[in-house]
Amino acid sequence: MRGYRVTAKILIQGAGIAGLAAAWWLKKRGFEPVVVERAADLRCDGFVLSLGGSGHDIAGRMGILEGLMAKGVELGRTQFRDSQGRDVLLIDHRKHLRQTNLLPVCRDDLVNALHRALNDEVPIRFGTQVEVLEQDGQGVDVRFDDGSTERFDFVVAADGCFSGLRQRYFASDDDCLKSLGYSAAAFTLEGRQAQGGERHVSFSEPGYTVELYGMREDLLAALFVWQDRVGLRVPRAERAGRLREVFAHAHGDIQRALDALPEGFYLDHLMQVHLPTWHQGRLVLLGDAAHCLTLASGRGASMAITGAWLLAEELARSGDVAALQRYEARLRPDIEVLQALAWKMAGWYVPLTRRGWHLRNLFMRWTPDWVTGWMLRRTFTRVDQGALSEAVRKDPD
Hints:
Layout: E1 9-13, H1 17-28, E2 32-37, E3 48-51, H2 53-61, H3 65-71, E4 77-81, E5 87-92, H4 93-96, E6 103-106, H5 107-118, E7 124-126, E8 130-135, E9 140-144, E10 149-152, E11 154-157, H6 164-169, H7 173-176, E12 177-190, E13 200-205, E14 208-216, E15 219-227, H8 239-246, H9 252-259, E16 266-273, E17 279-280, E18 283-285, H10 300-318, H11 321-349, H12 354-366, H13 369-381, H14 387-394
Parallel strand pairs: 1-2, 1-11, 2-7, 4-13, 11-18
Antiparallel strand pairs: 3-6, 4-5, 8-9, 9-10, 12-15, 12-16, 13-14, 14-15, 17-18
Helix pairs in contact: 1-5, 1-10, 2-10, 2-14, 10-11
């Protein structure tokens, strides 16, 4: 039962999936959210993500699911090939995942859908970020990087895996980031399609995987994942050169995609965030800033949306610091399951040795369809039957 009815002003730093979803739900619950984003516009990275479980259900309640389904990636067959372009195996994901509510979509489409759903009812200040926070028992005084000051009841840090607010008020990156041992890059190309007759082609060798998705008739999405033990962040100006260097000897289809690299594409190291707490006073972490599941989990966007809904629900119940404690206590068990799963999925997705690569391919080739389907469904639904997902389904909205 929602018992808190006094309007509170809440600052959200970050206009990504978590920040925009939080703004929508906080506005719906009667709060006054304000979003600040250091970039000059919405960030577009061009990678494909999966919206499923509680995140899928919540997106439906927000009224954005139908539009996303119209732009979603068709779950069809994936043709796996080696670096020479030789067919290794063919997996029909559509058959195996038809019983799940998993929706693959382009991140840009999801962000734009969340932005449109706000309908200009929540102010978004681009080119702005928090410089200093000062808390007391009743609120938070904020000074922004343009020198202006403002007071809020709560501050939500939804500014991503490398959150500036988290580094200043919780822990340094060295203390809370854990590397999965891989880096990833992603982009989309207009007017291009995957080659070879399949909408989804995966080129794989020990230490790397490259996937080319035929998103729509005129849009190709590319995802590169490779072993990277160094884990240093690559400056934006050096990303194209770095990606071409890593895949200099890859298959011709991959080279053709690299020849058309757009500006400003996504490239980063896969890092998880592990913290003993997600809130300090009236400052609370949300989405990747709190826990970062990485793309290896297949659930980052879904849990960002789920966390946004849950935070708004708990604040609507009491509107105090105890609400932040309840939000964390309810969300953390599912996050811990998914973070542990990501380590296993990364090794399966990109085997590091020739032996491991062959064993994975043999397993997928010779395992009966019903076993493969059961394993895939179990992987994608293992957190969809817990108390939190049940609460989402039963919420009267």
